[in-house]
Prior knowledge:
With 156 residues, the protein is α/β, with parallel strands linked by helices. It has a single domain, classed as Protein-Tyrosine Phosphatase, Chain A (Alpha-Beta Complex). Helix content is 40%, strand content 15%. α2 links the parallel β2 and β3. The longest helix is centred in the C-terminal third of the chain and has 13 residues.
Amino acid sequence: MEPTRQTTVYTIGYEGATTQKLFRKLHACGIEQLLDIRAVPFSRKSGFSGDELRTLLTAEGIRYISMPRLGIPQQYRHREISSESLLVFYEEVLLRKVPDQIERAARLCRARPTVLLCFEADAHFCHRGRLAHRMERLYNFQVVHLRVDFDLLPGF
């Protein structure tokens, strides 16, 4: 895929959020599609497991797509390493194994306003931030990290 016009890729984490607050933020930002990039789309939080989230998003008019190969597999998340080391490993090793998935995500983001979803509230401590910045470098995307807990402006 050739770098062409600039597209925005949004990211968001649902830590500390309710589905209602998440949906309000997504609507305020004009999001039409959510890419769930968790390796295992399961959550103990009501409404955030894959199938349940898909159903709720569909009712909100937002398309849900699960892309587990863009997540960090469990066997790596449970190792005794720092969070930063895990994110570096994700960026330098795991992302190199899935260029087709990154390209697919880029195509989807070009098609309609899209957000990458994972758990952590702060994208700087989450693999979605590393993925978004890889897409920025490869495809000339603008990256906007959304926070559910900031309601002052829709872009923050």
